[in-house]
Amino acid sequence: MIDSDDRRRRYLLLFGLAGTFGPDELQAAYRTLAKLNHPDVATDTGAGMRMVIINEGYRFLREILEGAQAPVPAETPEDPYYDRYRRAFKIMSAAFDDYFGEGGRKGLVGELETLRGRLREAKAQFAVLVDDMEYNPYVDDAIDRIASINKWLQ
Questions:
Q1: Which of 13, 52, 143, 147 is spaced 20 to 30 A from 125 at the CA atom?
Q2: Count of CA atoms in the C-beta half-sphere (13 A) of 138
Q3: Helices within 2-138 (DSSP H only)
Q4: Residue 31 contacts residue 97 (beta carbons within 8 Å)
């Protein structure tokens, strides 16, 4: 059985969050993951199961914020792998926020070519993590993000 600390670590990785995340960051990461993996958008057979995992992760991390779980550490050490992953995730998240009208740039709603350009930028950042850095805890998730982004670039 997976202990609470391991679940927390895995969900933080899935959501692209640091240990010091806040409610706004959690909600934004959840929306981004849902936009990539919801069965109405992702047509592959695994989409439903991915959403179950995403929903469970959201519930678990929300409980941490509400104090139902062990406290989140105040600081996380500097990690170049995490920094690269976080940079790519933020680019991807902002692209979807703008495309779906949830970001501050309402003029970009529905602008598919703008979305694709920004997703290419996020994909390039994820690719650096996969191709140019040694294997690390973020590689497998970065590969999944690249595959999800590729669906939008078709």
A1: 52
A2: 29
A3: 4-15, 23-37, 47-65, 80-99, 112-127
A4: yes
> What CATH architecture applies to the domain 77-154?
Up-down Bundle (1.20)
Nearest residue to 20 (alpha-carbon basis) of 58, 67, 76, 66: 76
Q: What are the domain boundaries of the chain?
A: 1-76, 77-154
Per-residue pLDDT, 68: 44
Contact 126, 148 (CB under 8 A): no
CATH architecture of 1-76: Orthogonal Bundle (1.10)
